[in-house]
Structures are given as structure tokens and as C-alpha cells.
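User: Show me sequence and structure for the first protein, then do the same for the second.

Assistant: Starting with the first protein.
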Amino acid sequence: MAATVVGLQFDLPAAVAVRHHIDVERQVLTRTVSDVSGVLEHVETTLEHACISCAIREDIVPTVERLARLRRWQSVLVHLPVGAEAYNLCSALNWDTRLARLLRVSAVVTAVRAGTVVDDLTGEALLAERGHHCARDDRRGVGEVLAAMVEYADAVVCDGVPSTPARGLLRVLARPQGVVFAEGTHELDAAPLVDRLHVHARSDAWSSPVREGDLPRLGPETEGAWRVDLRSSRAFHPERLLESLEVLGGGAHRSRGCFWIPTRPGRVLEWDGAGGQLSIGDWGTWHGRTRLTRIVLAGVGVAPARLADAFESLLVRPGEQDGRWCTVEDGFEPWLGPIEEVA
């Protein structure tokens, strides 16, 4: 990340870079502002609660706005904490009409290590194990966070030449059109990045758990990687799902999408997994959408056998009675909260 930012600073001489780092143990946010002339600011701020939401609200957005209002530079390079996803900052800038008149997001760049990208995306490591967590209770996996970053990115840059499977997996996860790929930070061309490469609605649609439409067929550029798209109008059976989450959520692959269960018929439930770790959550309501259970899985090598059968085994079967789902508990309360409506 640091090498990518430095390279962009030299390619964009009228740019200023602002880097934030969260020290979780000290509850301190460090801000460093620099341009080609050197370091301009180095400030430590104590946070009441060290987390990325607090950092964005209390310092990152105000700093970016302040630098833009100085009108001293043409571009602001925002180097977020390693475990922070750009989606949160982009959403804040996109929906704030006051800031939208001053700032626009030109591009979201994700930097990865070429030699370890497959292990990073499909392995079991936690951010906390590498010292990149953003809060004391941050138990996110490296794969979950990095995959989301690749999926949301407008440009993906490696620090060297990745293997064929690594290259294929990155292209499988990334948005199908309009993404810049660079193999080596020196290969990243800054010009497209400041030419309105980022379209928030487009990035949001691809990275959303409620992804719509068919996925493009995999081409030669995805050699060494696989993808399986599983979908049904039926709900997951809550008991079988709770007992067998690992049949789809386990394994060295990325899995993401949405589902519904008959005990919570009006809620879109998010599925977000990588490297055998799985997060599920309440994403919102269907808002007039047709209810859908759709899980997209991706990995390298050969896809595990019987994924479609495993998916089918978790769905509510046609012969199962609808009335049995009128219940006050379904076992998902620790992740989804109490049931607020029943079928």
C-alpha cells in the first residue's frame, strides 16, 4: 500500500497523501500528511473507541475536506488503515451532498502481495494475528476483508508478478468491466485513476450481497481459478443451515451472497465467507425485490465436488410445511438478533 501511494505521488506531482494508522492497544489514530516536498503533518489523536467508523467520522473525512478546501493540490491520495475497506469512506463521501460539491472519488485502488495473495484470500489468518485489526473486538479474517476490497476496487495492483492461479482468482473476484490491473507498482498508470474511473453505483452493485443478473463466463484471463454460482427462489432451512454451515462456508475459497429463511421472510440475510470463516448478518429488507438465495463461490484449482448438492440439501424442500415456521426463536439470534416478524 505504501509503495503504491508513493508511486502515485510521483506520477501526480499536484497530489497530497494522507495516511491513517490505528493503534488499537493505545486507542490512538495517527495521521500523516505529505506531498512531494515532504511530511507536512504528523498528528496523533486519542479515540474514545478505536474503530474504523470512528476514524472515518472523526478524522479521515474532516482531513480530506480540509485539504481539498485549501485548493493547494489537485488530488488527495487517501491511504486508509490496512484493515479498513474503502466502501465505508466512499459511501460517506457519496451521500453527503455538501461534500459532493467539493470532492469526488476518482478511483479505489487495492494493493496486494503477489506471492501470498492466494493464501491471503483463501487462508484462515485473522487480521488481529497480523496486527492489522481495527478494533479490539475485530475478529475478521484476512480473506474476508481482502476479497471485499478486490471486489469493490477500480484498480488492483500487485507488488510483483502473481502466479497464474493468483491472477485468475483476482480477476474472478474483481468487477468484470472497467478494472485496471497492474503487476508491479511501477506498472500502475495514474492517468486513468483521476479520470472518473470510480462509479459508486457500479461498484456498489457488484459488491452488494444482493447481486443481480448473470455472471459473465470465465475467460482465458481467469486460468487457474474457478467460480460456482448457486441460486434458488427457495429459503434455506434454518435448522439444517445452522447444523451444516460448513458445507458451503468451510474450505479454502471465497463465498458470498444473500439468503433468506422462513422464520425471517422479510429480511435479506448476508453471507460473507473466505478461508473457512463465515460471517452472516442482517443486510436489510427486500424492498420489493424477489426473495432469492444466491451464493457465489470462487477459488483456485478445481472446484470442490458436490457443491450444488450441498446447496440443495440446505434449501427448504417442496414437501415441508410453511406453517411450522411461526416461531419466536430459530437459533440465529446471536448473529441476526431476535425475530421481529413471522411468516
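Switching to the second protein now.
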Amino acid sequence: MPSPSVPLDLAVGGLARSALAWLPASTGGAALVLDLHGSGFDAARHVAVTGTPAWVDEHTAVVVAPTAAVPLQFKGVRQPGFAWSIPGVPLFGVPPGTATREVDDTAYLTALVEHAHREWGTDADRVFALGWSGGARLLSHWAGQEGCPVTRVVCVSGVRTPPAPPRAGLLALHGARDQINPWHGLDQPRWAESVPTAAQAWADGLGAKSVVRQASPADEVTTWHAADDSVVARLHRLAGVGHAWPGTADAQQRQLFGEAGSVRATDVAADFLFA
């Protein structure tokens, strides 16, 4: 992992926000990657699992890992954590209607992108974002907002239908045995629709014209294509996998969220983003 990281502190909406950034030797024209943690975590713990700072050298990318602002700590976990603020979406483990801190996280993400372009000269045509769990849910919301600058999105264990047709291509990976965000959805506002429904809606919004499904013992892949046969969206259903980051060996992830399987989400994401 490249070292050291660079602290990136911004004030957005009157609130001080923090992130970690990893920079290649030359940032001009580099791809920009935002890597969003899940609920109850933070930037440092998240990238220790995903390993995305390695993309700095492997793919000449600027990698930025922001931290959310709403405090949220899992029961039995010593480290304090944070959650993203998603309009209309209750937090995991927090009863619906519970007041939470007013935070505009999509404005924060947009400010990070603008900062990277301004300060480091990153490529406006290669603005990528990936998120796990709550981070994926926030990205799904952001992608449907007018003017969202992201061109490709990876949603791990958290894809949702954007509020309006997105312009960003989608890669989604989701465990078939996810108990936090179940594949078939839940009868509650936090996770009402199924994963296939959300992915299909995203593909429809991108104008998909055809679909291909392929299956192996570990991974069922659904790919949506445009009229020119380019890929607009792809969904991986991971057999036997829970809510953990797919392919991780991290002990805490496996303890909290179940099996991670053999498909490495970080590698699949890199192939999609940097193709």
C-alpha cells in the first residue's frame, strides 16, 4: 500500500470533513477513485480491507477514502464508526424516525471531486467511485442526482435504484446469504427492494438493450449491454457469501458479516473501472 497517505480536510455545509488520499508520483491526468466505507466504519479501517490504495501505482490513480459524519458504533466493536446520511433511508440498527445529524454527503463527495480536479489535475472523464454497504447505498443515491460527475460506480453489498436515471456505468457485487442487506429485499424502508430489481432499474436508466447471464459455482453474473454491445451494468450474485467484503481475509469482517467467498471484489472492481 502506498505510504504515506495525505490528509484531505474540507469544510462542506459548515461542517469539517476528513478524508485520506493516496497520490501517484504524477497526478495530472490520473483517474480519480473515491472508496466509501460501510456503516459503522471509517476510511482507514475500510481501505485496510479493500486495498484500493494499491491502485495508485498499479493504475496511476488518485485514491480518496472519505469518512462519514454520523456516529454509529456496532455493538461489541471497540472502534467508533460513522454512517453516511442518505435522504429517506434509516440507518442500520437505528429505529425509523430517530433524529440523526443533518449532513449533505453528496455535496461532500462532489466537493472532493472538485478539489481533486483543481489541486491535482485528475481526469474528469475517469471519475470512479466504489462503496461497500452504506457507502454503496449513498453512491446509488448520488449517481441519480443531476450533475453527478462519476462515470463508473462499483456497489458492493448495497446497490439501490438511483432516484433518477444515472449516467454512470454500474458494477454490483452482492452475497446471496447477506443477512444485513438481503438479496431479496426486506419489508422495511431501509432495504425494501431486491438487489436484482435495483440493478435492473439502473441498467434500464442507462438504456440497456440486451442481457446475458452466466453462472459458475461461486458467481452468477448478469450483464446488460447497450445497442453497440458495450457493457452498461453488471451484477454478480455470490453464492454462499454474506455481507463481508467479498474475498477478504479480514477477521473482523468475517466475524461480523459471515463468509466472504473466493471472488475478490477489489480485483473485479479494478477490471471494471480500469478496462
